[in-house]
Specification:
Number of helices: 3
Largest sheet: 4 strands, antiparallel
Order of helices and strands: HEHEEEEHE
Radius of gyration: 18 Å
Distance between the termini: 38 Å
Strand content: 25-35%
Structural class: alpha+beta
C-alpha cells in the first residue's frame, strides 16, 4: 500500500516519506540523515537571479529531482499541471464511446537560482527528464527582477 496508485497508475512519486529512493536535500538546506550541506558555490548568473521553469513528464520527476540535487539546486517547487504543446490529441474508447484527450498531464518544476548557473540547472533537467519521445516537455529560463525573504526581510540574491 505504500506505493499506492500514485506510482503504479499515475507515475507520480511526490510523497518522499513513501519513496524507495534515498532522500535528497533539494531544499537548499541540511539533510538530517547524512550531515551534508548543499554547496552554494558556483558561477553567478551575471549577478542576477533566474527562474528555471520546466514542464516534464510526471514519471520523470524523481530523476529530475536527483539531477537537480547533484548540481546543488537551492529551491524546488513542483505543481501538477495539464497542457498542450505540439503533441497531437489522443483518442480512445471507453464503454463504446469515443473520447479525445487534448490536454496532457505534466509536472511543472520551478527553481530560483542566484549562486548556481541557470544553464547548469536547465541542462540537468534536460538530461534527466529526457525519454527521446515527443512530449518530453520544455525548459524556460527567465530573469527575476527581485526576491524577498518573508521571514527575515532580506532582498535580492541573499533572499534566494
Amino acid at each position: 500500500e505504500q506505493a499506492g496508485l500514485d506510482v503504479s497508475e499515475h507515475g507520480v512519486d511526490t510523497y518522499p516519506e513513501f519513496g524507495g529512493r534515498d532522500p535528497l536535500a533539494t531544499d537548499g538546506g541540511y539533510h538530517e540523515t547524512d550531515g551534508i550541506v548543499r554547496p552554494d558555490g558556483g558561477r553567478a548568473n551575471d549577478g542576477g537571479i533566474k527562474l528555471v521553469m520546466a514542464f516534464i513528464r510526471p514519471d520523470k520527476l524523481s530523476d529530475v529531482k536527483e539531477g537537480l540535487a547533484e548540481v546543488g539546486a537551492p529551491s524546488l517547487s513542483v505543481t501538477n499541471v495539464s497542457g498542450r504543446g505540439s503533441q497531437p490529441a489522443k483518442t480512445g474508447q471507453w464503454r463504446g464511446e469515443e473520447y479525445s484527450v487534448d490536454l496532457h498531464q505534466k509536472v511543472k518544476v520551478e527553481c530560483v537560482v542566484a549562486d548556481i548557473p541557470a544553464t547548469d540547472v536547465a541542462e540537468a533537467i534536460q538530461e534527466t527528464g529526457k525519454t527521446g519521445d515527443p512530449g518530453d516537455g520544455k525548459v524556460f529560463v527567465l530573469p527575476v527582477e527581485d526576491a524577498y525573504q518573508i521571514r527575515t526581510g532580506e532582498a535580492g540574491r541573499s533572499a534566494v
